[in-house]
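TA notes. Do not distribute before section.
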Amino acid sequence: MQGIKILSIASYAPETIISNDDFTSFIETNDEWITTRTGIKTRHLAMGMPTWKIGSNAAEKAIEKAGISKDEIDLIICTTITPDTLIPSTACYIQRELGMSGCMAFDINSACSGFVYGIDMAQKYIASGSVRNVLVVSSEELSKITDYTDRASCILFGDGAAAAVVAPSDTAYSSFLGADGRGADFLRATCINPVPHPFFELKNINHEVDENDNGKLFQDGKEVYKFAVSIMPFAVEKALEKAGLSVDDIDAFIPHQANIRIIQTAASKLGVPMDKFCLNIEKYGNTSSASIPLALCDAIEEGKVKRGDKIVMVGFGAGLTYGAVCIEY
């Protein structure tokens, strides 16, 4: 299988930092309760900065670090569940902000599995021979869909972005991706304020709206947890099986940063010590598709991931989607 390499990766976190204590002003909670159940201490909020701007800030740095010109980017894939517009795509706004034109640009919505899906899609395009350099941008502004009246979920989410420039390589690559739509309603956010059009009245159709369909994030925490702790080790094992590797061959695991307990349970099922898992959930919270590349950025800066290391990135999210990719960094 055609290999790929991450030429560069860069991140952007909005300046405003919200601590656990900041939530005590409007919901019944405290720092200890949040920390022990989630592992989160702080999260960054964009405070109205557009999702495309968060993403373009990370993308600009990634291209500069890659040492290539913007004209050498053949494809922009943006992963996001919080676009600023239904149309056009966030990728097109990012392309415009970067002063680029001509290359393909589109969004994918695979929720928290987005970066894994985006990397795998980049590999497929590169393997086809139609492109060489792919810019994968994961940009999320979850604060604009978070339900801040929901004590259980509002503490989890933050904003941020990371971008990677992906190119061909002669190194090994394997992946395992999937989805289970039976759990589609366990984690969702609908179109904001769905309003029936005039033809509902004309045709005498009663339009009923679910109370959860308010444009805010709805999560069935128990169901998502059950799914996550089983699917993460499963996806990792399948990706490694394709690669002919075992967990002992992997230098670092970069999981979706949803909840420390989920990661701990998955690590236990895999028989992998926690020190092999790269974590930054304490600083950023759950940033959906941006969480894996944000964690990879920090791991590289801290020396936990080095050139030549075999790494596995694994995610799960709304859909319910899941996936793991195994590459050499």
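Switch to the second chain here.
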Amino acid sequence: MKLFGISIIACCAVFVCTLFLNYNTDLIAIESEITTEAGIAMYNAYVSMGKVTAGVSGGCLAATSAVMLLFYVKNYIDTHGKELGILKALGYSNVKIARHFWVFGLSVLVGCALGFLLAFCYLPTFYEVQNAEGVFPNFDVRFHPLLTFLLIGVPTIAFAVISVLYADWKMKSPVLDLLREKREYKTRRRKADTNDAPFLKGLSSSTIKSKKVLAFLVAFSSFCFSAMVQMSLSMNELSSETFSWMILMIGLILAFMTLFLSLSSVVKGNTKTIAMMRVFGYEDSTCSRAILGAYRPISYIGFAVGTVYQYGLLKIMMTVVFVDIENAPEYTFNFKILVITLIAFIIIYELVMYLYSLRVRKLSIKSIMLE
């Protein structure tokens, strides 16, 4: 289920890249047939837009997939240290053990293949939307084997190799450390204090520092929600309704998927801490605020970054890419859309946090301490 999140992100990345890169490839093939001045200007704008969109969206999502993949490889090694330590004790080398981690790349293969298939089915409609004004001569969708390999084969091979190399590096830990599932954490010594506030504040800080990747995923989910929702609402005025819905659906899928996966890992990774807090008399609401609440400021930072990102991207599109297009609409920052998106984000995010706080309350102290 955790690797399913990587598949979804890879699917969204390949879906967007396939649409614009396949369209660019077919459009470039008919460049000589475009003779009108308006057609040439639109041609240059569409080719540039395709490169920018594929590069920015694909690059951002690929980086996020890589971070999630490395996190899950590390998490697997940490939680299966005893089994891996026994294999090393039996004489298996790091390379022999690590090479089996190529299976983590299958999640990327599934996502990339699904994204490419969905995009290729949608391409005829996408071509009609792009040429709705009839500026270009009509041309059909073509299948490009090289593009297929670049969007499916290359990411799968790359992520499989990354998984093996990272696993080999993590497997260099001593056998005894693996058997004892010893994990190294850099912590600062703090002076003892009987006041609850410093302890809870320090607990929140250490929770984030010990799980930096989870903090990144929480921020990324907020970033996706903020950027994609605001961009989709703005696209109603700048482009077609089809683009708006496509951007909105991709943004919501990425936002909820990464948020649920990251918060689930947060709760699971801090079960023993929550159990000990209960033993010492802390209420469930206090445990939730200390563990889950630590990520609340990060989520709002991600929302702010997403707002700046979508404004900068749309501004570049309208002032640089479509600068030579006549009657191109002007883009200005819409504070009304920002307020609507922020209110929706606060309601949804706080609701999700409340649901996970209920999950914290259902954790059994006995089952946790017996693990």
